[in-house]
């Protein structure tokens, strides 16, 4: 509360005076990440061209049209370049729109940046916090109004986040922008953000909500199809919060989560969802690709190439989404496919094919070149017969004849690719050496190296480049004859990420693989997350109810069976009645006996687990107690060996997923079940046989039960030799 | 001067960001801006008209470039240029009296004026006038009376002396500017009252128990229909909703609120309903020199339906919508493609547009305008009355001078 008072005194106590404060914005012209390396070693990310216009222009244009009157551009790495760019541009001389640059060399994170802004004492009211790589055409009026209204009612509502619906790819759990699937819990009535998790554990398909969330809120909806636009409307308290909590670095990971988890101060975050408007942040190469395509497809209107002309050259839109600037010389035989942008002064040779690409200004493209899905910046020369697929090629690159760029290649500034050289997929090539102090840990991605290297490059950019040019014009460099540049080795652990975040489309086999694993998951696990729905806590839901409300009826079915079972236990209903009820459920959900067996079994196990127990033995006793009482309910569904196998599989799944306590007891319970005639010998043996070819990971329990299986095999007659 | 500069920049910004919508608003703002440009422009003693024309052209060029789709901007720029030329000419003819006197009185003091012989000046003026106004029916009559009247006056005058002439000459600069500003004011007035002028004609076109079809929303159409209702005509209106912006809904609401019997139909139902319709009345974005119409998307279809059933297709357009260009000009044919989000919700379809996985390739195109060829239009109603499409180029010749059709200056001039 101290923070709030401080800022309150700093700003003004008078609410009327607050209203008159012009709308301000803080634009972070540094993403504090290394996702765009090696390009960002030489040029700041906000100045990278997005459909031939530096990214920061999109953000500033939007801020201006959204009615922001004063923008503070926070520059950190390559601050000189950003500042000189802004000075040359028309942004500093706009009426009713002031752009002020704030320079700081030693900030390494968004948190630091906001602390610097706080010290400058320039923010006097609500402000928009945005990063310089955000493209949007949304109208702020509504969101601002909501924020102000909430603020009036509750002074603890410090921030409004803008979110947008965007379905993540179900197979690979990432949004089309290449970011990880995002889980949010939102109060559907007040729009308060209750939970935010952007790096949930995909492997298990579960996430954990605090019990109190369910207890405290009458209703909450859990979403995984929302995209965080990284446009925040903040109250001035946000800045002081950053100053008070000097360990806050990352806006989302520390600040948002910090506020959500730590409710001592009682600050609240709300969300504002936009529907038809567009907003996206360019976070990685994948989103660079996606947002570029959205711009070309005009989702960002009026921020589209033919309307937003910053240079002197007007771009014209032709049929099928071809944008052509003036003074292009193009051979008659060249083919320009749909959704392509060509910058002014570019020359295109005979029989060249350009599809779905963006070509910058002053490029020279030879004959018989194929360019597909590429982002070619300015002044690049591509000689005859080259083939480029899904690559980003920075300014001044020379690609000699016959060279091939495989999908996902990034060529940084002034790299030279030798003739007939094939650049392997996903390689990053730069004239600069890969920095040794590479931050492998993403948590440290905003560590010192960015700014240090950035400033070094700032100073001696040209020097290094020329030096490297000299040394690497050796006949056979890493990039073929006469090539220049270093191929960066991918840092450890990022191999998996390579295809996730690259400009190239996701390879088909990766998708297939992901779909396959997902299907496997689905077979023994119903926790696959369906699209968002609303979840109302009610008495039937137990604590392990991490799942979303689901339309998946097998999930419903299990829940229903479990609830029925619990009711039977609590109200002492007769077994036969219970069986009747479950039978009716079975019919209404159109399930097999095996499903019933599985559901009843898991309900029993859960009940056993929920009964208080101190040790594994007590738990085992619990299980035994439950089974002695309710065995009949289960065995009535176990007429066939298949159903018994289902029970074992279910048991295995329970051990793996929801109730790890059972894992060490697996064999003992299995033995108990055998003794109780719940499962027969044949079932256990065929279960073992079924898993014989499975992964090692899946065989944990088979191994555990090996002794029992051995004993089973040996004890009776030797009639099942064929089992081994 | 800097004052105008900021004004111009502000307006340019708004045009660029597509913040101004509707040709009437744009036309009015453009005219007001040009008025302030003219009033702030300092005029030298000689070549006043050229200075003004150049100033207006310089601004006009920028304005047109800022939003080439909004033809009203170019129209108004050309109208203002035409006004300057006309005013200059009428001043020249008026001054010819004085000039004629000076030449006749053989004054030594005004040596420089002697270089312009009366006859040649008159000839130039007449020639200029004839280029400005090709002889249309009306202007032919006016012109003949003018030119018939002019020579006698020039020869008849004879009592003014040199002093009064020099005074007159000094005031002429101010007079030209003043006259031009007056005329631009008139133009602004015309633009703002064009609704009423068009609406006045409503009674002549809408009769009892007729069924009128319209598409989308147009203020002109609204006023037109309302004016007919005011005159106690009872008729029905079908409003096609005008997807994807559905401005027809607003129009229908407004019409119903004003007590007209209104029915809303979908755009695709136009053909089904057209047989019951007596007249199609629509607004336009721009009217081209050949009588073709740039109109909200969907109108070409309505026009074709009207032709098929021989229903008159009437286009209402204020004179600021008359564009002196022909639609073969690709600049004009270029359409404004707006955001696809007007058609589809981005979030809903985001998985189909996931270009990264290569799974879906959904493209959405949302053009704003249609081109309706002149043969489909039965009648244009402008603030000067009803006209046939084939008469459009004549009407346009009254409003614009041929020299201004290309506003863009040669690149050598620079800015």
UniProtKB/TrEMBL annotation, chain A:
Domain W2: 551-722
Lineage top rank: taxon: Eukaryota
GO CC aspect terms: cytosol; eukaryotic translation initiation factor 2B complex
Keywords (A to Z) from UniProt: Cytoplasm, Initiation factor, Protein biosynthesis
PROSITE patterns: W2
Subcellular location(s) of the protein: Cytoplasm, Cytosol
CDD domains associated with the record: eIF-2B_epsilon_N, LbH_eIF2B_epsilon, W2_eIF2B_epsilon
GO MF annotation, one: guanyl-nucleotide exchange factor activity
Region annotation Disordered: where it falls in the sequence: 522-552
Annotated InterPro entries: ARM-type_fold (IPR016024), eIF-2B_epsilon_N (IPR035543), eIF2B_epsilon (IPR051956), LbH_EIF2B3/5 (IPR056764), NTP_transferase_dom (IPR005835), Nucleotide-diphossugar_trans (IPR029044), Trimer_LpxA-like_sf (IPR011004), W2_domain (IPR003307)
Main location class: cytoplasm
Pfam families in the record: LbH_EIF2B (PF25084), NTP_transferase (PF00483), W2 (PF02020)
UniProt similarity note: Belongs to the eIF-2B gamma/epsilon subunits family.
Assembly and interaction partners: Component of the translation initiation factor 2B (eIF2B) complex which is a heterodecamer of two sets of five different subunits: alpha, beta, gamma, delta and epsilon. Subunits alpha, beta and delta comprise a regulatory subcomplex and subunits epsilon and gamma comprise a catalytic subcomplex. Within the complex, the hexameric regulatory complex resides at the center, with the two heterodimeric catalytic subcomplexes bound on opposite sides.
Entry protein name: Translation initiation factor eIF2B subunit epsilon
Organism: Glycine soja (Wild soybean)
Upper taxonomic lineage: Eukaryota, Viridiplantae, Streptophyta, Embryophyta, Tracheophyta
TrEMBL record, chain B:
InterPro entries the UniProt entry points to: eIF2B_beta_subunit (IPR051855), IF-2B-related (IPR000649), IF_2B-like_C (IPR042529), NagB/RpiA_transferase-like (IPR037171)
Keyword Translocase listed: no
Comp. bias intervals (Basic and acidic residues): 160-171
Gene3D superfamilies assigned to the protein according to its UniProt record, in alphabetical order: Translation initiation factor eif-2b, domain 2 (3.40.50.10470)
Region (Disordered): 142-175
Top-level lineage group: Eukaryota
One GO location term (cellular component): eukaryotic translation initiation factor 2B complex
Localization: Cytoplasm, Cytosol
Chain intervals with Low complexity compositional bias: 146-158
Any one GO molecular-function label of the UniProt entry: guanyl-nucleotide exchange factor activity
Transmembrane segments: none
Keywords, alphabetical: Cytoplasm, Initiation factor, Isomerase, Protein biosynthesis
Keyword Isomerase annotated: yes
Stated family: Belongs to the eIF-2B alpha/beta/delta subunits family.
PANTHER family: TRANSLATION INITIATION FACTOR EIF-2B SUBUNIT BETA
Subunit relationships: Component of the translation initiation factor 2B (eIF2B) complex which is a heterodecamer of two sets of five different subunits: alpha, beta, gamma, delta and epsilon. Subunits alpha, beta and delta comprise a regulatory subcomplex and subunits epsilon and gamma comprise a catalytic subcomplex. Within the complex, the hexameric regulatory complex resides at the center, with the two heterodimeric catalytic subcomplexes bound on opposite sides.
Protein name: Translation initiation factor eIF2B subunit beta
Organism of this sequence: Glycine soja (Wild soybean)
Lineage start: Eukaryota, Viridiplantae, Streptophyta, Embryophyta, Tracheophyta
């Amino acid at each position: 509360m101290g923070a709030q008072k401080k800022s309150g005194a700093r700003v003004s106590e008078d609410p009327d005076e607050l209203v008159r404060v012009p709308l301000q914005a803080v634009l972070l012209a540094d993403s504090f990440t290394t996702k765009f390396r090696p390009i960002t070693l030489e040029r700041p990310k906000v100045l990278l061209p997005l459909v031939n216009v530096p990214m920061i222009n999109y953000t500033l244009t939007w801020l201006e049209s959204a009615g922001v009157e004063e923008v503070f551009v926070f520059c950190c790495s390559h601050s000189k370049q950003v500042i000189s760019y802004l000075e040359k541009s028309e942004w500093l001389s706009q009426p009713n729109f002031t752009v002020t640059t704030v320079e700081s060399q030693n900030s390494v994170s968004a948190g630091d940046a906001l602390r610097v802004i706080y010290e400058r004492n320039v923010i006097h009211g609500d402000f928009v916090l945005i990063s310089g790589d955000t493209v949007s055409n949304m109208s702020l009026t509504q969101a601002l109004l909501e924020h102000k209204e909430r603020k009036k009612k509750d002074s603890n509502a410090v921030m409004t986040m803008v979110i947008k619906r965007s379905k993540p790819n179900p197979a690979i759990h990432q949004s089309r922008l290449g970011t990880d699937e995002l889980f949010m819990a939102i109060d559907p009535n007040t729009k308060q953000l209750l939970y935010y998790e952007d790096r949930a554990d995909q492997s298990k398909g579960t996430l954990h909500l605090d019990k109190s969330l369910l207890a405290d809120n009458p209703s909450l909806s859990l979403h995984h199809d929302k995209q965080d636009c990284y446009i925040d409307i903040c109250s001035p308290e946000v800045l002081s919060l950053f100053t008070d909590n000097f360990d806050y670095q990352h806006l989302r990971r520390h600040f948002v989560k910090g506020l959500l988890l730590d409710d001592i101060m009682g600050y609240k975050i709300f969300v504002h969802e936009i529907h038809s408007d567009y907003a996206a942040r360019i976070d990685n190469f994948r989103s660079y690709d996606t947002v570029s395509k959205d711009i070309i497809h005009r989702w960002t209107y009026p921020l589209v190439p033919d309307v937003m002309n910053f240079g002197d050259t007007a771009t014209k839109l032709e049929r099928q989404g071809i944008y052509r600037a003036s003074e292009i010389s193009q051979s008659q035989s060249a083919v320009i496919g749909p959704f392509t942008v060509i910058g002014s002064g570019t020359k295109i040779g005979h029989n060249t094919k350009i599809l779905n690409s963006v070509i910058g200004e002053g490029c020279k493209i030879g004959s018989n070149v194929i360019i597909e899905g590429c982002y070619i910046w300015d002044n690049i020369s591509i000689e005859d017969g080259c083939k480029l697929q899904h690559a980003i090629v920075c300014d001044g690159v020379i690609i000699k004849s016959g060279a091939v760029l495989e999908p996902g290649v990034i060529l940084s500034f002034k790299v030279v690719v030798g003739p007939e050289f094939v650049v392997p997929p996903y390689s990053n090539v730069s004239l600069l050496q890969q920095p040794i102090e590479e931050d492998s840990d993403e948590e440290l991605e905003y560590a010192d190296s960015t700014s240090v290297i950035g400033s070094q490059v700032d100073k001696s950019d040209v020097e290094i480049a020329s030096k490297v040019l000299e040394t690497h014009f050796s006949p056979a460099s890493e990039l073929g004859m006469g090539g220049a540049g270093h191929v960066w080795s991918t840092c450890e652990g990022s191999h998996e990420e390579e295809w996730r975040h690259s400009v190239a489309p996701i390879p088909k086999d990766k998708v297939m693989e992901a779909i396959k694993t997902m299907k496997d998951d689905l077979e023994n696990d119903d926790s696959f997350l369906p699209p968002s729905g609303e979840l109302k806590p009610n008495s039937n839901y137990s604590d392990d109810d991490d799942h979303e409300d689901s339309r998946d009826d097998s999930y419903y079915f299990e829940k229903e069976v479990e609830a029925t079972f619990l009711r039977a236990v609590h109200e002492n209903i007769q077994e036969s009645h219970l069986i009747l009820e479950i039978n009716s459920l079975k019919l209404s959900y159109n399930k097999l006996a095996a499903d019933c067996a599985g559901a009843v079994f898991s309900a029993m196990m859960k009940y056993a687990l929920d009964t208080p127990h101190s040790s594994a033995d007590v738990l085992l006793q619990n299980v035994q107690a439950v089974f002695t009482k309710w065995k009949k309910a289960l065995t009535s569904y176990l007429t066939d060996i298949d159903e018994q196998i289902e029970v074992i599989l279910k048991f295995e799944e329970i051990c793996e997923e929801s109730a790890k306590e059972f894992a060490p007891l697996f064999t003992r319970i299995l033995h108990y079940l055998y003794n109780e005639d719940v499962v027969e010998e044949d079932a256990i043996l065929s279960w073992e046989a079924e898993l014989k070819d499975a992964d090692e990971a899946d065989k944990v329990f088979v191994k555990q039960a090996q002794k029992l299986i051995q004993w089973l095999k040996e004890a009776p007659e030797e009639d099942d030799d064929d089992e081994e | 001067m800097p004052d105008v500069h900021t004004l111009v920049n502000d307006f340019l910004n708004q045009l660029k960001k597509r913040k101004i919508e509707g040709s009437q608003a744009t036309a009015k703002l453009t005219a007001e801006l040009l008025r302030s440009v003219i009033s702030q422009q300092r005029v030298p003693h000689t070549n006043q008209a050229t200075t003004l024309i150049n100033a207006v052209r310089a601004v006009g060029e920028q304005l047109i470039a800022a939003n080439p789709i909004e033809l009203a901007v170019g129209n108004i720029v050309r109208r203002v240029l035409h006004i300057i030329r006309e005013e200059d000419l009428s001043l020249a003819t008026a001054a010819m009296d004085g000039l004629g006197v000076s030449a006749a009185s053989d004054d030594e003091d005004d040596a420089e004026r002697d270089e312009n012989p009366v006859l040649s000046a008159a000839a130039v003026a007449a020639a200029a006038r004839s280029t400005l106004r090709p002889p249309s029916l009306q202007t032919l009559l006016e012109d003949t009376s003018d030119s018939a009247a002019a020579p006698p006056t020039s020869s008849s005058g004879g009592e003014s002396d040199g002093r009064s002439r020099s005074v007159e000459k000094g005031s002429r600069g101010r007079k030209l500017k003043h006259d031009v500003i007056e005329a631009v004011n008139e133009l602004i007035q015309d633009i703002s009252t064009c609704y009423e002028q068009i609406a006045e004609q409503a009674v002549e076109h809408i009769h009892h128990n007729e069924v009128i079809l319209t598409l989308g929303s147009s203020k002109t159409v609204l006023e037109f229909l309302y004016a007919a209702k005011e005159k106690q005509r009872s008729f029905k209106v079908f409003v096609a909703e005008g997807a994807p912006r559905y401005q027809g809904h607003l129009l229908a609401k407004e019409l119903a609120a004003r007590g007209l019997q209104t029915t809303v139909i979908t755009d695709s139902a136009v053909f089904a309903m057209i047989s019951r319709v007596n007249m199609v009345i629509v607004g336009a974005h721009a009217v081209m020199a050949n009588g073709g119409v740039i109109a909200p998307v969907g109108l070409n279809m309505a026009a074709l339906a009207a032709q098929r059933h021989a229903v008159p297709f009437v286009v209402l357009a204020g004179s600021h919508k008359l564009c002196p260009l022909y639609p073969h000009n690709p600049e004009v044919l270029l359409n404004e493609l707006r955001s696809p989000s007007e058609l589809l919700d981005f979030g809903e379809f985001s998985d189909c547009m996931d270009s990264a996985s290569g799974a879906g390739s959904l493209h959405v195109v949302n053009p704003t305008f249609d081109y309706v060829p002149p043969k489909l239009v039965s009648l244009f109603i402008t603030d000067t009355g009803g006209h046939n499409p084939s008469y459009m180029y004549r009407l346009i010749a009254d409003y614009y001078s041929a020299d201004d059709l290309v506003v863009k200056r040669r690149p050598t001039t620079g800015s």
